[in-house]
Structures are given as structure tokens and as C-alpha cells.
From TrEMBL:
Lineage: superkingdom: Bacteria
Alphabetized CDD domains for the sequence: NAT_SF (cd04301)
InterPro entries xrefs: Acyl_CoA_acyltransferase, GNAT_dom, N-acetyltrans/Recomb-assoc
SUPFAM superfamilies (alphabetical): Acyl-CoA N-acyltransferases (Nat)
Swiss-Prot/TrEMBL keywords: Transferase
N-acetyltransferase domain ranges (all copies): 14-167
Protein name per Swiss-Prot or TrEMBL: GNAT family N-acetyltransferase
GO MF annotations in UniProt: acyltransferase activity, transferring groups other than amino-acyl groups
Classification via Pfam families: Acetyltransf_10
Source organism of the structure: Leptospira ilyithenensis
């Protein structure tokens, strides 16, 4: 399946593409920079460092690229954000570059994933959502099912299992 969508934003255009192995370095860098820069008000330095270290595993990211429905949002040649679906209804990843927050990119990525879930006949979507991303998910109709504790090494982080019915 080919995914090629153009979206207009002011004078520039955004394009949604499937992730490929060639995008690995950009994805890993964006993940780390975004975690370290946008979640400072929600998590401690120790928590952010533990979370950002996940980006060190190339094998993990290559597996995500090959096994998940992982999409990228570009403006010209600049990677603005990425998102992925696991198991056809679980939003595993949603990250928007820290310099491009609050510009509709996260909404665009989530809505693109929703469209894919609907095309598969899915009726709902779920995700474990960070404290930082929770307001966006709530704005898009997701509801908190339960708080969740994630353990990365010896460090614990709180996130939320959220779910949304789609029509």
C-alpha cells in the first residue's frame, strides 16, 4: 500500500510517508531530542534520561519500522514528527519535533492513523500516553482508562492507558 498525502499549512506543505530503514537516524535523533526537550514539566531529569536512552537501540527502531505501521510527517526535507500503530489499533509512538509543537502535526498524524484503523474495520484505538501528550489525546476524544507505571531499568514513569471509539 502506498501512502502519499500532501497537506497545506500556511505557505508550505506537509507530506505523510511510510518510514523506511533510511529514516532510522532521523527518527532516533528526533525521539531523543523531543523526549529531552518537551517533557521537562512532567517528568524528572532522571526519568527523561531513562526514557531518551531507548533511542540507543537501533535494533528496536528497525523492528518498529519493519513490523509497525510507522508514518512520518515531512515538510520539504524536514522531519516534523512520526507515529505508529502496533497490532492494528494500538498507537505505539507519537512524537513531534520539539521545535514544531502545537502546529497541528500530532493531530494530523493521529488522524492519519485513525483513517488506517477505520480502513481495516477497526472500531477503537488505544495507547499508553505520556503526561505531556495526554492533553492532545483528550482533545481528540481519547478517554483515560487507567494510570500506568512504566519501569525503565530502575526508573519509574507514569503514563495513561487511553482509548477512543471511532466511527
Amino acid at each position: 500500500m502506498k501512502l502519499e498525502r500532501l497537506y497545506r499549512r500556511s505557505k508550505a506543505s506537509m507530506e505523510i510517508r511510510f518510514a523506511k530503514k533510511e529514516n532510522l537516524e532521523g527518527i532516533m535523533t528526533m525521539f531523543q531530542e523531543t523526549v529531552l526537550n518537551i517533557s521537562r514539566n512532567d517528568y524528572s531529569s532522571e526519568q527523561l534520561s531513562a526514557w531518551a536512552r531507548i533511542s540507543d537501540s537501533k535494533e528496536l527502531w528497525l523492528r518498529r519500522i519493519s513490523e509497525q505501521y510507522l508514518i512520518l510527517c515531512y515538510e520539504e526535507n524536514d522531519l516534523l514528527g512520526f507515529a505508529s500503530l502496533k497490532d492494528d489499533d494500538y498507537v505505539d509512538l507519537l512524537f513531534v519535533h520539539h521545535k514544531n509543537q502545537r502546529k497541528g502535526i500530532g493531530k494530523l498524524l493521529l488522524n492519519t492513523l485513525r483513517d488506517h484503523v477505520q480502513s481495516l474495520g477497526g472500531k477503537s484505538m488505544k495507547s499508553h500516553v505520556s503526561k505531556t501528550a495526554r492533553p492532545l489525546f483528550e482533545t481528540l476524544g481519547y478517554k483515560v482508562v487507567s494510570p500506568n507505571i512504566v519501569k525503565i531499568g530502575e526508573v519509574e514513569l507514569t503514563n495513561y492507558l487511553m482509548e477512543k471509539e471511532i466511527i
